[in-house]
Automatic annotation (TrEMBL):
InterPro entries: NB-ARC (IPR002182), NLR-like (IPR053137), P-loop_NTPase (IPR027417), TPR-like_helical_dom_sf (IPR011990), TPR_rpt (IPR019734)
Domain of life of the native organism: Eukaryota
Pfam families membership: NB-ARC, TPR_10, TPR_12
Protein name: NB-ARC domain-containing protein
UniProt domain NB-ARC: residue ranges: 56-224
Classification via SUPFAM superfamilies: P-loop containing nucleoside triphosphate hydrolases (SSF52540), TPR-like (SSF48452)
One GO MF term: ADP binding
């Protein structure tokens, strides 16, 4: 293929390449003056040769181009890359297309092969030598003389620098090479140093084969197209063989001989290291290569390795080190140091000259050919060098591997694949440094979000300490402490608690009460207790730690402040929000006196205080403090720093709580974008921000986007986290909430039932997460028309929380609040009112007047009052709520608008229809300015305004507005979505009021048909639509009858329903 390409490509040489043409006068002189051409090419022409057009053309142009200015060319490249085969193609091309040239071949594998070839060439040329004359020198003199006709000499495998160049006292092969204006020499070599020396700068580096060339070669070698039918395995095999011609030829020989499919060969190649070495060491016959030399890939470079070891010990050491780390992406900084900088530069240059190492552009990162990587270990095994090399490599990497400080992140990410390869690939080396390396690898993996891998490494570190140290040794206890933290991060909270309890028990026996290590372990155990739902235990243990530290440490001691910080977090989890705020304010006040404004600990405490403020209803203060923290971190930390991103994340959450939903979405989108660039797809922080962004999307009315993002998060977590992991369950919980908001109530119920079932197996009955999921499932049951189930489940949750939580705990009050709403939906309005009055009374005692939770309960109580016929009380309470919110919340805040919305509904129920219309028009006007057209809240307010219009006699306006709402919801919501059906139902009622009875009937029949498919028979919404449809149809049927005989349900009764 290559020879044809050269001949056809260059039209200007076509006339000189034909053998059947008449010679011109100059050539005739050559024929008359010189003896006939002589050819000595010991290898046959390779019928399997493919590709390499660019390299062949380059050689031909340099040697035989119009200028004829270059007499020497060297082709350099990795062993097995096909240099000899390229030279063979050039030799046979010259023999065919340059008939005036003698083509001669000198293999430089050794002095012996070189001399034997010279002897054969002398015979072919008919040269006679004197008895004492060196045959090499005889051939050189003849070819350099005017007697010789033009010649092309191929010096193949000129790899050994000493043999080629010689020394001070001994000549090299280069001294026996002829020089003549009629001669050309082509060298092939693995050594760039040799190439530069012999070719005087005319060097061609032979590149790797491309995908198509490699496939063509495999096909020619196999001679069986059926073996290539598995395209996927074929592609993967060629990649695995790194497109190396020798490796492809060897694989083809194995496949042909053993009659196995490519997929099976690929499986063996990817087996154990010993299997791979055995496979790649298998010799095979190849007539295009020299007899007596190894053809197997694993042995083809052994001579080069020996040469390097002889010439450059530092390079050999580097080669051995690299063979035990990853072959790709090797940073220079991880390489063992040498006596001088120049020595390592020279060593790298030696490996580069043999094409064993390639540099990535201008960077300080190198790549080694994967098969060279394998062959190096074969060579080391042969010379029994592996054990010492591995030991040195482990000691070196353990010394240079960085700690898990954030400023080292880029470095540990560069080193990580190499360190993992080293410790995982040499499990038989039980030395302390290997396990210490496991420790730092595990810590860094954990920071990088690769929690499972981190746990595995820390378990191995702990195993070493457990088997070599006594139970009370501090290092063994430290290993258990660190492993417990990793377990907790991995969702193995029970294991974390058990391990930490063991550590604390030992330290309580062996260390005094005030010992820092004992206190640190108790501190960590308390955090694990909190994660395990044992909040009371966490608070008790942290109060004990804090009490001791307050006796022995000064007020400003970092450990004392850290424990107080953690205790405040536990207080908040225990519903003691006031205590949490007070303690954190104390911590922050001290740190503001002793630490600079940019100190991480000071900022961390301010961050946590802001979270507590938000929990305490001080949302404005939370936002202000977080904005301050974020501003400082944006000035002092890089954009990608975890602390900066965490504060921005938390600020976005506070924005959402403050009604600044647009700002929350924008900030979270920024955080997510950065984390998607810098963190792996499975990193917990990346997933957490995506989770929070989905919640913000939902709050912003972008429910579809919320569902899509949460489904992505859940899918990833289901792949990487165990079924019981808290983060996985939390995301499934949030996805169910989004499903419900999207009208996928059935899916929401199914997913929450799954979450609850798992949590009921793994968490104690009183665990906050278990109760929270049961609470949310009850809400979904209610949305699904399963009101009885909702009430039953909420009564269970409330009963447990009333036993385990103090009367004022937020979670207890939230469940009571939700149970009251379920009571109301179940027709138990009196119970709803009673329970909400209790909740409101407690919240009015413990929460400030402006607290969101206090206002929310008063809001719900007003709704219950209205349902109970206490419309006057409802209006009065809602007017109070609205008045407060108008003082503390911005005009566009969702909670403020929601209360105004509900107050308008109460006004309408109280006969104040004009006030209702006016207030709803105000709400709708604001939402039309601030919310997108498809936002659920905007549509809900327009829906309610249309009802008020109808009540106010503005039926035309009601129909027009409802048609607009229905049109939007039909575009954006699925057919079965409750909000879409509710608007269609209400539009049908408006049609009837407007005299459009046909349209009313058609639309209600459609709504009824859908609700009968998706809702249980007793569902309130289904009954309402069926009732209205019956009423309208009966009215149509009795139009011709006496009105006195009509005993159907009245519209007023239906409105009440």
């Amino acid at each position: 293929m290559g020879a044809d390409f050269l001949t056809k490509r260059h039209h200007r040489h076509r006339t000189t390449c034909r053998q059947d043409r008449r010679p011109n006068w100059a050539e005739q002189v050559l024929v008359d003056y010189f003896p006939p051409p002589c050819h000595y090419i010991p290898l046959p022409e390779n019928s399997r040769f493919v590709g390499r057009e660019a390299a062949l053309l380059d050689v031909q142009q340099r040697l035989f181009g119009p200028a004829h200015s270059r007499s020497r060319v060297a082709v350099v490249g990795l062993g097995g890359i096909g240099k000899t085969q390229v030279a063979l193609q050039v030799a046979y091309w010259a023999k065919k297309n340059r008939p005036q040239y003698s083509v001669l071949w000198l293999p430089a594998l050794s002095d012996t092969t070189f001399e034997q070839a010279c002897t054969e060439i002398a015979k072919r040329l008919g040269i006679h030598r004197a008895d004492d004359k060196d045959i090499k020198d005889t051939v050189r003199q003849y070819l350099s003389s005017d007697k010789a006709r033009p010649w092309l000499l191929v010096v193949d495998n000129a790899d050994d620098l000493d043999m080629v160049l010689g020394g001070l006292d001994s000549p090299g092969l280069i001294d026996y090479l002829p020089r003549s204006e009629h001669g050309k020499i082509m060298f092939t070599t693995r050594s760039a140093d040799v190439a530069e020396a012999v070719a005087e700068g005319d060097v061609i580096k032979l590149a790797d084969m491309d995908d198509q060339e490699a496939l063509d070669l495999l096909e020619k070698c196999l001679q069986r197209r059926d073996l290539l039918s598995d395209k996927t395995s074929t592609t993967e095999l060629l990649k695995e063989l790194a497109y190396l011609p020798l490796a492809i030829t060897q694989a083809a020989a194995y496949l042909k001989r053993n009659q196995i499919p490519i997929s099976e060969y690929l499986g063996r190649l990817r087996g154990t290291a010993q299997d791979t070495i055995r496979l790649m060491s298998r010799e095979f016959y190849d007539d295009s290569r020299y007899r007596g030399t190894g053809n197997a890939v694993a042995t083809t470079w052994l001579v080069s390795f020996d040469q390097i070891r002889k010439l450059d010990n530092a390079a050999a050491d580097l080669l051995m080190f690299m063979s035990h780390i990853e072959p790709k992406g090797i940073p220079r900084s991880i390489l063992p140091s040498t006596e001088s900088q120049e020595e390592i530069v020279h060593a790298i240059g030696t490996l580069y000259s043999y094409a064993f190492l390639n540099r990535r552009g201008q960077s300080e990162v190198y790549d080694m050919h994967s098969l060279v990587h394998l062959a190096t270990r074969v060579w080391m095994q042969k010379h029994r060098l592996i054990e010492e090399a591995v030991r040195k490599a482990i000691l070196h990497v353990a010394k240079v591997f960085p700690t898990d400080d954030h400023e080292n992140r880029d470095l540990w990410r560069e080193y990580m694949p190499h360190a993992l390869k080293l410790v995982q690939g040499n499990r038989e080396f039980d030395i302390e440094e290997r396990y210490n390396l496991y420790f730092w690898i595990g810590r860094c993996l954990q920071v990088d979000g690769r929690i499972r891998e981190g746990v595995d490494c820390l378990e191995r570190f702990h195993f070493w300490k457990e088997t070599t140290l006594v139970e009370t040794h501090p290092d063994r206890l430290t290993s258990q402490h660190e492993l417990a933290i990793a377990y907790q991060a991995n969702g193995q909270v029970t294991e974390a608690v058990a391990l930490l309890e063991k550590v604390v028990a030992i330290e309580e026996q062996t260390l005094v009460e005030t010992h820092p290590l004992r206190l640190a372990s108790q501190h960590t155990l308390a955090i694990a207790y909190q994660a395990n739902g044992q909040v009371t235990e966490a608070v008790a243990l942290l109060e004990k730690v804090v009490a001791i530290q307050e006796q022995i440490l000064i007020e400003t001691h970092p450990s004392r402040l850290a424990s107080q910080h953690s205790l405040a977090v536990a207080y908040q989890a225990n519903g003691q929000v006031t205590e949490a705020v007070a303690l954190l304010e104390k911590v922050v006040a001290i740190q503001e006196q002793i630490l600079i404004e940019t100190h991480p600990s000071r900022l961390a405490s301010q961050h946590t205080l802001a979270v507590a403020y938000q929990a305490n209803g001080q949302v404005t203060e939370a936002v202000a403090l977080l904005e301050k923290v974020v501003a400082i971190r944006e000035q002092t930390l890089v954009e990608t720093h975890p602390d900066r991103l965490t504060s921005q994340h938390t600020l976005a959450v506070a924005y959402r709580a403050n009604g600044q939903v647009t700002e929350a979405v924008a900030l979270l989108e920024k955080v997510v974008a950065i984390r998607e660039q810098t963190l792996v797809e499975t990193h917990p922080d990346r997933l957490a921000s995506q989770h929070e962004l989905a919640i913000a999307y939902q709050a912003n009315g972008q429910v579809t986007e919320a569902v899509a993002l949460l489904e992505k998060v859940v899918a990833i977590q289901e792949q990487i986290l165990i079924e019981t992991h808290p983060s996985r369950l939390a995301s499934q919980h949030s996805l169910a909430v989004a499903y419900q908001a999207n009208g996928q109530v059935t899916e929401a119920v199914a997913l929450l039932e799954k979450v609850v079932a798992i949590q009921e197996q793994i968490l104690i009955e009183t665990h906050p997460s278990r109760l929270a999921s049961q609470h949310t499932l009850a809400v979904a049951y209610q949305a699904n028309g399963q009101v009885t189930e909702a009430v039953a489940l909420l009564e269970k949750v409330v009963a447990i929380r009333e036993q385990t939580l103090i009367e004022t705990h937020p979670s207890r009050l939230v469940s009571q609040h939700e149970l009251a709403i379920a009571y109301q939906a179940n027709g138990q309005v009196t119970e709803a009112v009673a329970l909400l009055e209790k909740v409101v009374a407690i919240r009015e005692q413990i929460l400030i007047e402006t607290h969101p939770s206090r206002l929310a309960s008063q809001h719900s109580l007003a709704v219950a009052y209205q349902a109970n016929g206490q419309v006057t009380e409802a209006v009065a309470l809602l007017e109070k709520v609205v008045a407060i919110q108008e003082q503390i919340l911005i005009e566009t805040h969702p909670s403020r608008l929601a209360s105004q919305h509900t107050l308008a509904v109460a006004y309408q129920a109280n006969g104040q229809v004009t006030e209702a219309v006016a207030l709803l028009e105000k709400v709708v006007a604001i939402e039309e300015q601030t919310l997108v057209e498809t936002h659920p809240l905007r549509l809900a307010s327009q829906h309610t305004l249309a009802i008020a219009y109808q009540a106010n006699g503005q039926v035309t306006e009601a129909v027009a507005l409802l048609e607009k709402v229905v049109a939007i919801r039909e575009q954006t919501l699925i057919e079965t979505h409750p909000s879409r059906l509710a608007s269609q139902h209400t539009l049908a009622v408006a049609y009837q009021a407007n005299g459009q009875v046909t349209e009313a009937v058609a639309l209600l029949e459609k709504v009824v048909a859908i609700r009968e498919q998706i809702l249980v028979e007793t569902h309130f919404d289904r009954l309402a639509s069926e009732g209205w449809l019956t009423y309208i149809m009966n009215n149509l049927n009795v139009q011709d009858k006496d009105e006195d005989e009509d005993e159907d349900t009245s519209p007023g009764e239906l409105e009440g329903l």
